[in-house]
Amino acid sequence: MKKNIYRLFAILALTYACSGHREDKRNIVPAPSTFYQNDGGSFKISANTRIIIQPETPELQQLADSLSAFISKASGFKVETMAFSTGESLDNYILLSTFQADSGYGKEGYKLKVEPNGILIHANTGAGIFYGIQSLKQLLPLEIFSGKAESIEVKSAYISDKPRFSYRGMHLDVSRHFFPVSFIKRYIDLLSFYKMNTFHWHLTDDNGWRIEIKKYPGLTEKSAWHVDRNNQLWNEVTPPQPGEKATVGGFYTQEEIREVVRYAASRYVTIIPEIEMPGHSCEVFAAYPNLSCKGDTLPVQPGTYWPNVDILCAGNDDVFTFIDDVLTEVADLFPGPYIHIGGDEADKTRWSACKKCQRRISAEHLKDEAGLQSWFIKRVEKMVTAKGKKMIGWDEILEGGLAPEATVMSWRGMEGGIEAAKMGHDVIMTPTSYCYFDYYQAEPEGEPLAIGGFVTLKKVYSFEPVPPVLNEMESRHILGAQGNVWTEFIATPEHAEYMAIPRMIALAEVNWTEKENRDYNDFIRRMDHQFAILDQLKVNYGKQSTRVDISLSRNESTGKLMVGMETELYKPEIRYTTDGNDPTATSVVYSAPFEIPASCTIKAAIFKEGKQLGKVSERAFALHSATGLKCEVSPAPSFKYQARGIQSLTDATLGSVNHNDGCWLGFEGDDIEITIDLGKEQMVRNIEVAFLQNLKAWIMLPKSIVLEVADFSGKYAQSNELSVSMVTPADTVLRNNLVIQVKKQNCRFIKLKIKNGGPLPANHLYPGEPAWLFIDEVVVN
Ligand code: ACM
Ligand code: ZN
Fold first, then answer.
1. If you compute the radius of gyration of the chain from its CA atoms, what whole number of angstroms results?
2. How far is it, in rounded angstroms, from Cα 257 to Cα 500?
3. What are the start and end residues of each CATH 3.20.20.80 domain in the chain?
4. pLDDT of residue 638
5. Is 2-161 in CATH node 3.40.50.720?
6. Largest alpha-carbon pair distance within the chain?
7. Does 205 participate in catalysis according to the annotation?
8. What is the pLDDT of residues 682-730, one digit of tens each?
9. Whether the CB of 440 sits within 6 Å of ligand 1
């Protein structure tokens, strides 16, 4: 037999390699490592084509059967599959082979060759063959995806390909809203089609427990159901009323879970189950109230539950018996290497007041509640490890000390991931600002209501999972990136698709394609074909943003203020005005950054064949002496409110009273210091700084501002101080422009020391909690 295989490979001549010219990766997403196309005609798949596999390879047999089923569904004709045997004429074949390892493409790479007499997919593993087949599908005529292909012709091509990262993940929260097994399978289909290999299944949270645990039937009898608030906004639901029936929710039986696990495995997707602890767990107390600190039976929350104070009691050993039992069943259901234990956003209010938790803190000689959380997670890690699994947690598990073997999922920016990688721990990057697909993907107006934020397709595509501060060794701990779909505001499969796609496809390319092969414009060009495929598959994908991003920067050599414009469409025709009027199909076309000598309002829109796409984008620039100059802020703003970065403080654009409008930097509880270098000594009359007051959103004006200035020597002296008080009544929401006169007028450097206005006052719903400080422009007059 072996001899015959050798003969086969001699004929197929893997040395075919790189004849032909290097191509533009055609339409394949994620972009392959190399794509050559020769002009050698094409191959036609017909009823006489056979899928030939290496003998005695059941895994390849399955892949062949599934490819055959795909072809017959698309074309109506059946392609036979068969093991290779001698005496076969080698013509009109699709050959799948893992014979003779090729070190060039590792565990998941593959080689795909299309010639007039046949197609060869070679890989070292079944996974590689699967990815080769996904690339082949993208080379086929579009109609194949809608089952209307009359003939299937593939142009000659040669691809050699392998992934950059080993972890390529997508997450789905099925607690906030429950999603049926049929959608979970479709989600897995979509992610595997784009060569993602991990599905992070967020199975438990405050709004419902979704996995059957035989030992704790209350979890699916009670914790999986809440009262019906489907007609109310998520963040405005009325609380469950006494005696009201819990009718909304659902769960997956263990049988269904096993079926999904099998389904995923046949698409080379590993599932990571997440069981949230110690926080985001109050649904458990609907059935097992003894596991909380207070012991009250709580109804499952039908909407927002924040702050999530009711969490698992860390002082009660029954809690750890419960967790161990649950994880035993979970470990048995999911064959993958990881169990995710959550660990995020555990409010410590109850722990601080709980005798049992406090006793644990003393008995274990822990410093405080953060130490108790760390102790909790370390104890759970021992259970996870004992079951032969590895533990993953959100980056909060770093607080108070990281468990010895934990893998960290970095979501509050990259910092947690960086810290963990430097300590030698594995990391999955999923920072909100690139990877949260529950955030808006286009201008909120015209989009379905979302949780907030703004993460465009282009933003996702620009993500670089390996931070430059890591050295070569540390970088190896970055396993890859993951997109998260939290479903507070997402109630249906159609809506989940809308939020996940196309951003998931951009992240698939970030994960798969080498950094130097990534090119946003080429991605957008290739996405044209992908959108057409998604249309055939009737996928309800999201609309791309049609916003024109208008930016201002100071040219470092000329000092001129330049306006630039960007969109996330392929070769957009941007037209703009500078006189405040809306642009029309005959306005000036933007081609390159241009200078603005004075304050003005710029309006721009995208046009296609004389018609405007989307809305007019607009930015008003109020120029001042520090416009476009570099400033420094310490500490850095919260990852949640970064505007366009620190330079937003001098970008001549003023924020509205909406703290989410993308102009404001937000600081939680901190005093801050801002310094600006004016570049040369200047006469300065005064400084205007804008702050927000919105107590309902925990935002307070500062207590005081101290202004210091320095001349060229850089020696600061205090110039002025301003005390600030809250504007009454307390529910006033306003943008407050504070003006500070400059006493010594010859300034090169300006420093503002700003004192946070918190904590929240006694009459607030959350008295004593830290207040947010929101700051926008620092205007230098
Ligand atoms: C998270 O978004 N709380 C992980
Ligand atoms: Zn407790």
1. 29
2. 22
3. 167-536
4. 87
5. no
6. 97
7. yes
8. 999 999 999 999 999 999 999 999 999 999 999 999 889 999 999 999 8
9. no
Candidate from 205, 344, 428 with most ligand 1 atoms within 8 A of CB, to mutate: 344
* Cross-sheet strand order for the sheet of 21-22: 21-22, 34-37, 157-161, 110-115, 118-123, 93-97, 50-53, 80-83
Ligand 1 atom closest to Cα of residue 409: 4
The answer to whether the CB of 130 is under 6 A from ligand 1 is no
Distance 178 CA to ligand 2 centre (A): 29
Residue with tokens 């767990």, as numbered in its chain: 281
CA 179 to chain centre: 20
Active-site hit among 115, 205, 206, 283: 205
**Which secondary-structure segment (H or E) carries 574?**
strand 573-577
Nearest CA to ligand 1 atom 3: 344
Please check the confidence at residue 17 and state whether its pLDDT lies above 50. Answer: no
Taking the mean position of all CA atoms in its chain, how far away is CA 422?
22
C-beta of residue 717 within 8 angstroms of C-beta of residue 707: no
Overall CATH class of domain 622-781: mainly beta
CATH number of this structure's domain 546-621: 2.60.40
Among the listed residues 406, 353, 356, the one whose alpha carbon sits nearest the alpha carbon of residue 377 = 406
Q: Give the single-character DSSP code of 765.
A: S
Just give the CATH number of 167-536: 3.20.20.80
Q: Are 623 and 652 in contact (CB under 8 A)?
A: yes
Query: Could you tell me the CA-to-CA distances from 251 to 175, 188, 234 in Å, in that order?
Result: 9, 18, 20
Q: What is the DSSP string of 412-465?
A: SSSHHHHHHHHTT--EEE--HHHHBTTSBSS-STTSPP-SS-B--HHHHHT--S
742, two tokens: 């400059």
pLDDT digits (tens, 9 = 90+) for 221-277: 999 999 999 999 998 999 999 999 999 999 999 999 999 999 999 999 999 999 999
Strands 594-595 and 611-621: unpaired
Residues of the chain within CATH 3.30.379.10 domain(s) are 2-161
Say what angle helices 181-193 and 254-265 make with each other, to 10 degrees.
20
Query: Does the pLDDT at position 11 exceed 60?
Result: no
Spatial distance between the Cα atoms of 305 and 344, rounded to a whole number of angstroms: 14
Q: Is 368 a catalytic residue?
A: no
Residue 646 CB burial class (10 angstroms; 0-12, 13-18, ≥19):
middle
For the CA of 432, the closest atom of ligand 1 is 2
Amino acid at 563: V
Ligand 1 contact, 394 CB (< 6 A): yes
Taking residue 19's Cβ as centre, other Cβ atoms within 10 Å add up to: 10
